[in-house]
dUTPase
Amino acid sequence: MSEVYTLKQLYEMQKELDVRIIKEKGLEGVDLLPNTVLALQVEVGELANEWRGFKHWSNDQSPRTKKIHSDRDAYLETNPLLEEYVDCLHFNLSLYRQLNLNISNYLHEDLSGDLTGLTEAFIHAFDWASKIYWATTTKRPSMAEKSLYRLTDVLLTIAKLLGFTRDQIAEAYIAKNKTNHDRQTNGY
């Protein structure tokens, strides 16, 4: 992928998808933040499950980075770990829209030096997502904003720790965004 995509560009794609879903599903005026926080937490769990590094009880702790799909006469290779990461990013970006926060104000802080590893990063992702929810229910917008920024820091740090490049993330994000639009067109 020749163009380097910014979070703002990916956010604009997510915003367009969100607006479409809200309109087509008749969700105008509905508080979707609790569902989005939970969806993000589910995706973080699915990402951790594909990573497998926390499964101390298993001899198979290798990340799931390759899956072969049969599509008519061709075989397609996908990266389930990257796909789950991108699902997390979709919901993370959706939260910016729901909280009316300008993603251009976000300044990334790399947390990889502050974390003991991916297990801790996943736990922090769950924690910061929960804090977003509780801050909104208790009407503390500055805490919700701080929590979303920290969640984004954690997710970007997870990407770094998993070895994903910006191009890989953007390419997978764009492909999944197209899939999500196709799903809406086909009555998902």
